[in-house]
Amino acid sequence: MFAASRHRNTDALPAKSDNRWTVDDILLKEEDYPDKVPFLKLQLLSQSEELRDLLRNPHLRQVLRSIDGADSKADAMRAAMQEPLFVEFSDECLKVVENDKHKVSRPGATEDV
Predict the structure, then answer these.
(1) Rg (the chain; Cα; Å)
(2) Which of 88, 93, 110, 104 has its CA nearest to residue 42?
(3) Between 110 and 30, where is the model more confident?
(4) Staple 112 to which of 3, 13, 101, 108, CB 3.0 to 4.6 Å?
(5) Residue 93, exposed/middle/buried by CB under 10 A (0-12, 13-18, 19+)?
(6) Buried residues in 20-41 as b, exposed as e (16+ CB within 10 A)
(7) 45 burial class (0-12, 13-18, 19+ CB within 10 angstroms)?
(8) Domain residue limits, the chain
(9) 9 φ/ψ angles, rounded to the nearest 5 degrees
């Protein structure tokens, strides 16, 4: 979803004959595919208290459901980017996956500053 704003080089992507992801796709190295977010970084999203707070908003959840169910994801993303709440959500997602240091909300975990 968050790679939608970047141009994709489809020649560099592995061929998917059955549209399923492989273990190699999940564990890809960041430098191999600059327009994709590695799985391990995506897991950081679940640890963000800021994202959890934003996702408590029913309007944001509805916007996300609309994007997910849209026939044209690109058009839905363009419309969503006009919503300040969605822009805030997107910015927070990018902040989490693009930074090595982030706040961790897991019990017993320490915070990086």
Answers:
(1) 16
(2) 93
(3) 30
(4) 101
(5) buried
(6) eeeeeeeebeeeebeebbbeeb
(7) middle
(8) 23-28+38-104
(9) -100, 95
83 versus 103: the higher-pLDDT residue is 83
Which residue bears the tokens 């327009």?
A: 35
Please, are residues 101 and 112 in contact by the beta-carbon 8 Å criterion? yes
DSSP conformation letters of 12-71: GSPP-SSS---HHHHT--GGG-TTS--HHHHGGGGG-HHHHHHHT-HHHHHHHHHHHH-S
Query: Please, is 59 exposed, middle or buried when counting C-beta atoms within 10 Å of its C-beta (0-12, 13-18, 19+)?
Result: exposed
Q: For the chain, what's the residue count?
A: 113
